[in-house]
Design a protein that fits this description.
alpha/beta; Arc Repressor Mutant, subunit A; Nucleotidyltransferase, domain 5; five-stranded mixed β-sheet; 14 helices; about 40% helix; elongated
């Protein structure tokens, strides 16, 4: 016996008003100053509805109205002009890396208002890491002369898989370093919602928003510093997997010529240190390092000077990275693979060798580029993550003291 179909909910006037408000706010959030006519064309709503809903959004603080505009050809009443209030509140983009915590404070257009960062090299417990994040947030807020009440959401990137519900996968010892009730503790301290996400996923969001990946739907971003990690987008949609593990690179242990997840910076540093430690090896690296440990930057600098040892190191790094990029190309077939993170600018020197080898590894080699976002790539993506939340939940959020 067939069950009777459920009766769809009645579209009440308050419900329709809310739907229309969300539609208008979504258009205004992505545009600049818009006239009532422009909003009518963009939304398909009537003039009366556009003006009534804009009045509601103005009273709520989400929209500001500018002086009416008129040009020489205009006839009749001047057009009303509306704009998304990008100072209605602010968001935070937080990158909790293995070595450093970075906080970006941004307005609702995503423009940076303040930035703060702290080293976490000596941190031993997840609780200590959370405390440093808290202190870095306080520093950023103080720099912008803002209080917690002005923050609408915080996007937070961690170097561990995070599922769709914001839970950190703790199957690996390294991942467990980030799991200490981080989101709950920050909300308890500050009051705003905390949106956890994998750092490479946020790097993909950031790159798709403001980097080389703009207008690219099928995108892979490869964080290539200390450890390889990848964020993947399919037709503009971020991939998570069943437990947040899509894009995790542990499988590299099984790839011939790679063997582990060590990134470009780590390999260059370790091989440079080994060369300097061998007294029989003549290299500019010894002079560049002096009494301090060799860095990846010094390996790239020595190669730029024509040092044969450093050039050999970079060749090995390029060979290895080409295999990693080719594997992503075979598994996910992205149009573009972007090398991101603090090592990205230096890694531009590797691109010719990487691209030369790709055709030998896969019949569908992706285009390869380096990110222009540098070490801010994760925090920029975290800002975008927080803005997505604000735009989706704007009508349910309570704004702090009004400022336009």
């Amino acid at each position: 016996m067939a069950r009777p179909s459920a009766t769809p909910p009645t579209a009440t006037p308050p419900m329709l008003r809310r739907v229309n408000a969300g539609k208008l706010l979504g258009v205004l959030a992505k545009g600049g100053v818009m006239t009532g006519t422009g909003l009518i064309e963009a939304t398909g709503l009537t003039r009366a509805t556009v003006h009534a809903v804009c009045n509601d959004l103005i009273s709520m603080g989400w929209v500001v109205e500018h002086d009416p505009g008129r040009d020489d050809s205009s006839v009749g009443r001047p057009s009303r002009r509306f704009e998304y209030n990008h100072r209605a509140g602010y968001v935070l983009g937080i990158d909790i890396g293995a070595a450093k915590t970075t906080v970006l404070l941004a307005d609702l257009r995503g423009e940076t208002v303040a930035k703060a960062g702290r080293s976490v090299y000596d941190v031993k417990t997840a609780a200590e890491r959370t405390e440093i994040v808290h202190e870095t947030v306080v520093e950023a807020l103080a720099a912008a002369d803002l209080t917690d009440g002005r923050i609408l959401a915080a996007g937070v990137g961690v170097a561990a898989p995070v599922d769709r519900d914001g839970n950190i996968l703790v199957d690996d010892e390294f991942w467990r370093r980030f799991d200490a009730g981080l989101a709950d503790r920050l909300t308890e301290l500050h009051g705003w919602p905390v949106l956890l996400e994998n750092d490479a996923n946020l790097a993909a969001l950031g790159e798709h928003w403001r980097g080389e990946g703009r207008n690219v739907g099928d995108l892979a971003v490869l964080l290539a510093g200390e450890r390889f990690g990848s964020g993947l987008m399919d037709s503009g949609r971020l991939l998570h997997g069943s437990r947040g593990g899509a894009g995790e690179m542990v499988f590299l242990k099984l790839v011939e010529g790679v063997g582990d997840t060590h990134g470009i910076a780590r390999i260059a540093r370790e091989q440079g240190a080994a060369a300097v430690a061998d007294p029989s090896v003549e290299t500019v690296l010894r002079e560049l390092a002096g009494d301090r440990p060799v860095t990846a930057e010094q390996a790239f600098a020595a190669a730029a000077k024509g040092d044969e040892v450093a050039l050999g190191i970079l060749q090995q790094v390029a060979d290895r990275t080409a295999r990693v990029v080719a594997t992503l190309g075979i598994l996910f077939n992205p149009e573009l693979v972007v090398l991101g993170g603090a090592v990205a600018e230096a890694a531009a020197a590797l691109l010719p060798d990487i691209e030369k080898q790709l055709a030998g590894f896969t019949s569908t080699p992706p285009r390869v580029a380096v990110s222009p976002l540098g070490d801010a790539i994760v925090s920029v993506g975290a800002v975008r993550h927080a803005l997505n939340y604000v735009e989706q939940h704007a009508l349910d959020l309570e704004l702090g003291p009004r400022r336009t």
